């Protein structure tokens, strides 16, 4: 199975990926595009720009082009659509130009696990975290994935609770052969 864990920043995605990696040792884990690009020397703006998110979107699409097998992806193209559609310069982003590529890439996933912001919020934010952007992206991701506003047609599992409970929800959703 090819599973992507999706959500806004500071929602618990990477923590869930770490837990799932321990529970599913046969799965390959693909780090999020931000870290991949950073390791390659990409210079992100201090406040991420539309171009920064487009670079991550392109990398996320490329990551999904890999061959078959059991894979856990930390983020997927929808994450970056959420950020781009919530960005203050969103008018500079040409969604229609990207949608065919995003739809094609998402067809290569079996499941998207959505880690949303819970009420009350489980994550303590630091002063440097952009809480307003975090909430806006969370709302946009729920619209994109749960409402399927752009007809992506991918299966989505929204998880909640502590990390162990979230991992259990994912495991229960996977076919027996994939565990």
Automatic annotation (TrEMBL):
Location of the NadR/Ttd14 AAA domain: 2-161
Highest taxon, organism lineage: Bacteria
Annotated coiled-coil segments of the chain: none
InterPro entries for this protein: NadR/Ttd14_AAA_dom, P-loop_NTPase
Name of the protein described by the UniProt record: NadR/Ttd14 AAA domain-containing protein
Organism name: Corallococcus sicarius
